[in-house]
Amino acid sequence: MLELNGLIALLILIADIYAIIMVLQSSARDLHKVLWVLLVLLLPLIGVIIWYLAGPGRKPF
């Protein structure tokens, strides 16, 4: 069970890093970039889900 929790945490971390990179590379205004990055950092799982659904830039999928 502990390994599964660690794997889930690692996947969330990877998704957060990916979301932050995509936000920083987007054409959004700087203030919007900062707000999106803060959202992803403060709410890792929910922030990345919100970013995927409503965030700036093209969607990878």
Please, could you describe this protein's structure?
- By secondary structure, this protein is an all-alpha fold.
- The chain has one domain.
- 79% of the residues lie in helices and 0% in strands.
- It has helices spanning 2-25, 30-42, 44-54.
- Helix 1 runs antiparallel to helix 2 and helix 1 (2-25) crosses helix 3.
- The longest helix is centred in the N-terminal third of the chain and has 24 residues, at 2-25.
- The mean pLDDT is 89.
Low-confidence stretches: none
Please count the helical segments. Answer: 3
Q: Name the quaternary structure.
A: single chain
By secondary-structure content and strand pairing, the structural class works out as mainly alpha
Order of helices and strands: HHH
Estimated share of beta-strand residues? under 5%
Overall number of structural domains: 1
Mean pLDDT: 89
Describe the structure concisely.
The chain is mostly helical and 61 residues long.
Features:
61 residues, 79% helix, mainly alpha
